[in-house]
Amino acid sequence: AVVSTQSTGEDKGYWSRSNRDILVDKRLDFEAECPQWLVNKKGREWRPALPRFIEGVIVDLQTRKPKKPNSGNRKVARVQITKHGEKKVVTARIRGEKNTLQQHHRVLVQYARARNLPTVKWVIVRGQMDAQY
Question: Which of 35, 89, 97, 115 is found 20 to 30 A from 73 (Cα to Cα)?
Answer without folding.
Answer: 89
